[in-house]
């Protein structure tokens, strides 16, 4: 069976796209990002005193605010789409029938994973025309847009995998969704707080920070932050203060694989939950 | 076709199965009867590869359920006690999903879906959403989905609960057709009249163990297909048993000087013929009944003997 011929994907997408939120969410999402673009444009134009405004800086401001906004919004949406993937089967009492088909745990996981991720990728692609606006002003390379999109997909894929893990672990969607949000919160906020605390502590000791990036051990907690690769991408100083974007991506890849492995293991043993 | 030997399964504080054994031959419909919590669902889940057993063996056909779960799943069709259904799919999409989930090849897939629609009587309604079906039609669709990959064994856990009488009758007829097609069926149910109508054997279970009824019979023979059971009581000593044994198409189950229990071929017409023969032979009949609910009687006798759990 090829990776995209998985019957779970077709079924999940059919069910998902028949919900009202299938068209309500993209509409709200685009409206929100459009307002972010407008706000970024007006703010960056205003700070450049009208006629002297540099197009490149406006383009960069639009790009940065759009990328961060969309990642934050999609990070908030990802648990909704993934953490109910398996619990909904348990709640609707369809899980037993599913487990006694010839679909293997990896096939079930893949179907649930792809369908939850595809919807988020659809939203991501919806915002590409807005992202392309930054080209009109300059200051942003197509490779940067591509990298931002790839980073977004990796981070969202990991959050989806973590959401599915929570979904396999718990019986009820409310518990799995709350747990997935908890994990996203830890990754986004707690790592940032720990990083800021460690950085403050280091500055206190060093007294003269200079223009060098923080050492790796100080940045270590931040590598788990879903925004780290984007910080690295947006860094425009002479020296990149966040140079470990590859490490961060590898960490996210590892988290994805671990979550997938644990979810499949749970699926194998989930007959007792039906 | 189904062979279970000394099967044990414990949960945290409860024992689900405690040395249960069972043997079901190919083409039989076997009923599993017992009070709530007796272990029926645990047994069916173990056979469906959903639960691992602690010890003992369970085989479906040539396959052990622990070591060959994929082969077992290809062999069985499982209908859980509370079978959920994808309400937001169309009927055709629902069947297509399960055909694909059982990895049916193109050609056979379409054929299986058409047959499932035909068998369930839903061909004309294929584009309707599942949520618009009544409970009885949903149960038909569930059974059609369970049969879509052509299983040799059906495991049905309380399949008729919640169905109205007409839907139950239709369901029973479907089971009889499946049996005629050579499918082996293990069905758990509390509706004893249904089991008596369709099963060739009934097995009693309580506290995870086989339960022998007071007569020492673990498996009670239900009427064979096309026969009817009757009980005849006599006012005075009679030799009706000897006479009945001499008649063609009459299988005497029990005969005393005042009671005759027999299985008669030809349905009610055959039973009427037996009664006529007995009256012509001079027997004084005080009671004649062709609607003996033997299973219900036996159930009450059996489970009153194990702490009255039948009434719990």
Overview of the structural elements:
The complex is a heterodimer of chains A (274) and B (312). Chain A is mainly alpha-helical and 274 residues long. Chain A contains 12 helices and no strands. The longest helix of chain A is centred in the last third of the chain and has 34 residues, at 173-206. Chain A is globular and about 60 Å long. The model of chain A has no long low-confidence stretch (mean pLDDT 87). Chain B folds into 2 domains: 2-212, 3-Layer(aba) Sandwich (Rossmann fold), CATH 3.40.50.300; 228-292, 2-Layer Sandwich (Alpha-Beta Plaits). In chain B, strand 7, helix 6 and strand 8 (184-188) form a beta-alpha-beta unit. The chains are: A mainly alpha (274), B alpha/beta (312).
Structural class label of chain A: mainly alpha
Distance between the termini of chain B: 33 Å
Number of strands of chain B: 15
Counting copies of identical and different chains, the oligomeric state is heterodimer
Share of β-strand residues of chain A: under 5%
Q: If interface size is counted as residues with C-beta under 8 Å from the partner's C-beta, which chains form the largest one?
A: A-B, 26 and 30 residues
CATH top level of the largest domain in chain B is Alpha Beta
Helix content range of chain A:
over 70%
Report the order of strands and helices of chain B: EEEHEEHEHHHEHEHEEEEHEEHEH
> Which superfamily, in CATH terms, is the homologous superfamily of the largest domain in chain B?
P-loop containing nucleotide triphosphate hydrolases
Main sheet of chain A, how many strands, which sense, barrel? none
Structural class of chain B: alpha/beta
Q: Taking Cα atoms only, what radius of gyration of chain A do you get, to the nearest Å?
A: 21 Å
What value does the average pLDDT of chain B take? 83
**Tally of alpha and pi helices of chain A:** 12
CATH topology of the largest domain in chain B: Rossmann fold
The largest sheet of chain B, given as strand count, sense and whether it forms a barrel, is: 7 strands, mixed
Low-confidence stretches of chain A: none
